[in-house]
Design goal:
The structure is a homodimer of 171-residue chains.
Chain A lengths: L1 E5 L5 H14 L10 H8 L7 E7 L7 E13 L4 E11 L8 H15 L4 E7 L3 H9 L3 E2 L3 E7 H17 L1
């Protein structure tokens, strides 16, 4: 048995643990620089940058045990003129797998999307993570085969931003 | 000569024209269902879902002419504990290409990212659009080669959301 509920500020240490566990699973154990203060500011203020769900495993006469999480935010479709949801993180701790907890988390994210009138629910998957790909496809998700993701990181952002000020100074 | 400025509600008909022109370029001419009311509600209220920049071509003694646009919103990095920018649309009308207008738009988006302390600027590119890929790479963007995009559309969202209510009813 399990249940899924909205995260509260009291869950922040747990959320950070789960983010780190997911990063380790994604072979980037040292990538997590986020702090509790970051998550409090960005997730639980007046205009949160993300929403988070916590899955708990339930057994009779035992405290609920954290089993996984889903963290998401909203994107926008200019074709549809509607918001969508981008699922950033979905993770179930290894010892709780195979019990439908990942599906329950994803279903709850979809329910949130439906409630908000969102026209898309999407996420990125690692191309070597066949277990995840099979799981998502079994739930009706499809690859956007034509599209590839490009990124500019911190330094690149500043280099590009400088082009804007140079071009303004020249006018 | 050209300049880039923030869009206002008066630009909505222009933004819709540019969204349609981009959809046509992307070989999906009939995909745009968004209306002026959608863009007004979602882009220009108290908590906008997106921001939009307009590029204008400037010539002496002529009114500024719309040449292109960039439309973006914010995402979130759980590894960094910071927002990033997702660039949804970047488009320059064909007759204004080759003048640095795309670069000026992208630079201005990067400047906005820098101003907001964003750690990432990213977007999706069509894998057959080599002109765009070359352009982005010349400005320092890199492919996220390991990641692929998955999506559930409207119907899929409702089917998945139903799993959540079934699972709740069963508890």
């Amino acid at each position: 048995m399990h249940s899924v509920r909205a995260a509260t500020p009291a869950d922040i240490p747990l959320i950070l643990d789960l983010i780190r566990a997911l990063a380790t699973y994604e072979r980037e154990p040292d990538a997590v620089k986020a702090t509790a203060a970051d998550l409090l500011r960005d997730g639980f203020g007046d205009h949160p940058c993300f929403e988070c769900l916590i899955a708990e495993s339930l057994s009779p006469e035992v405290q609920p045990e954290p089993a996984g999480f889903a963290l998401f935010f909203y994107n926008y479709s200019t074709w549809r003129g509607r918001q969508g949801i981008h699922l950033e993180d979905l993770f179930v701790l290894p010892r709780f797998r195979g019990q439908g907890i990942g599906k329950a988390l994803l279903a709850k994210v979809a329910a949130r999307a439906a409630e908000q009138g969102c026209v898309r629910l999407q996420w990125d998957v690692l191309d070597w993570n066949q277990t995840a790909i099979d799981f998502y496809q079994s739930l009706g998700a499809q690859f956007l085969t034509e599209w590839r993701i490009m990124r500019v990181n911190d330094q690149g952002i500043h280099a590009l931003a400088n082009l804007a000020s140079v071009s303004e100074a020249a006018r």
